[in-house]
Write a structure and sequence with these properties.
The strands form two sheets. Strands 3-4-2-5 form a four-stranded antiparallel beta sheet. Strands 1-6 form a two-stranded parallel sheet. The protein folds into two domains: about 15-50 and about 135-310, Multidrug efflux transporter AcrB transmembrane fold (Up-down Bundle), CATH 1.20.1640; about 55-130, Alpha-Beta Plaits. By secondary structure, it is α+β, with helices and mostly antiparallel strands. The longest helix is centred in the last third of the chain and has 37 residues, at about 230-265. Helix 7 packs antiparallel against helix 8. It has 13 helices and six strands. The relative contact order is 0.12. The chain starts with a helix and ends in a 12-residue tail after the last helix. Strand 3 and strand 4 (about 95-100) form a beta hairpin.
């Protein structure tokens, strides 16, 4: 426990260090596997778009005997054989979403639902969303996403440097793509709340990345003049120095989101909370991972290709080799010990 209690201080001072930059191929390989799995899942299963994006009809029934089998029976009796999504919300509500229906079909569904659940037609909350409105929502969501990325790139380029902006955007795209892949895998419905969750995780991912990049910028301001370490070494020190802070911040953020996901959505059956909390939970975890294992290693690779950083790496390497040679020579002299002189014979 004593060792763990002081780990943050030792990481910050460089007394304990893990080579995140040097082992970047491991992290790249793991991320490539996740991205491939997400791509395969999206290609084979696809996203389950909500009614807000693809259009359709929605019916919400409040009844003491609310159940999914009754709702399915009502749709069959109404002659609706489209791909339907039926969810139970809480203990007394059932939400049915269908593809776009005609007025006759919609009236038939309402009649059957009222008969099956023993409620009045007026108490059934019905909505009709056209496909044009869904396309408009999709277009606005994409505009918001791309606008967010452009503004963030400009901010990071002006505050730090363009290569930091490129690395941060790569990490953000990495996070969003993995989150979308997991969404397709579990089959959760994509709703406007999901889009809000995606935009939220973009912000958190960038926040964690900016914290690390700020320390990298501080450690590398005069790195060429000092010549004490390479850019990768200074960036790796920055990751170690911010590691405990990133872990603690992410853990504190994941606890309430996990409570919303597993308690609010799982036990209480709040569907909207499920859409939002899953995106947040996955995004927070992948955002922390990418800021440490993806964004900073990519930044180090981009910067190490610069002529000044290559020259710096050669100087540091030559200095290390010279110091190692001097240390080896000194060690040999110490091991050899004092030279034994021949004993003189006493003359009489």
């Amino acid at each position: 426990m004593a060792k763990l209690s002081g780990i943050g201080g030792r990481l910050y001072r460089g007394e304990t260090s893990y080579d995140f930059i040097g082992k970047r191929r491991r992290w790249y390989g793991f991320s490539i596997l996740l991205l491939l799995a997400s791509a395969i899942t999206l290609f084979t299963q696809g996203l389950h778009l909500g009614i807000e994006f693809k259009g359709g009809s929605s019916f919400t029934v409040t009844s003491a005997n609310a159940s999914i089998p009754l709702a399915e029976s009502a749709l069959r009796d109404a002659g609706v054989n489209t791909q339907n999504i039926i969810q139970k919300v809480g203990n007394d509500k059932v939400r049915i979403q269908t593809e776009p229906l005609s007025n006759v079909q919609q009236n038939a569904v309402q009649d059957q639902l009222a008969a099956k659940f023993n409620v009045s037609i007026e108490s059934i909350d019905s909505q009709i969303i056209g496909p044009s409105w869904g396309k408009e929502i999709t277009r606005k969501a994409l505009y918001g996403l791309f606008g967010f990325l452009i503004v963030v790139m400009l901010y990071l380029a002006m505050t730090f440097e363009p290569k930091m902006a490129i690395s941060a955007i790569i990490a953000v795209v990495h996070d969003v793509f993995i989150t979308v892949g997991i969404y397709a895998l579990v089959g959760f419905e994509v709703t406007p709340a999901t889009v809000i969750g995606f935009l939220t995780i973009l912000g958190y991912s960038l926040y964690d990345t900016v914290v690390v990049f700020d320390k990298v910028h501080e450690n590398t301001k005069s790195i060429v003049a000092s010549g004490r370490s390479t850019y990768s070494q200074a960036a790796n020190l920055a990751v170690n120095q911010t590691l405990v802070r990133s872990f603690n911040t992410s853990l504190i953020a994941l606890l309430p989101v996990g409570s919303i996901l597993f308690v609010g959505a799982g036990l209480l059956g709040a569907g909207t909370l499920k859409d939002l909390s899953l995106a947040l939970f996955i995004g927070l975890a992948t955002g922390t991972y990418s800021s440490i294992f993806i964004a900073t290693p990519i930044l180090a690779v981009l910067r190490e290709r610069e002529p000044a950083m290559r020259a710096l790496a050669k100087r540091v390497g030559t200095r290390s080799a010279t110091a190692g040679s001097t240390e080896s020579t000194s060690k040999q002299l110490v091991d050899r010990g004092p030279r034994n002189q021949p004993k003189r014979k006493n003359r009489k």
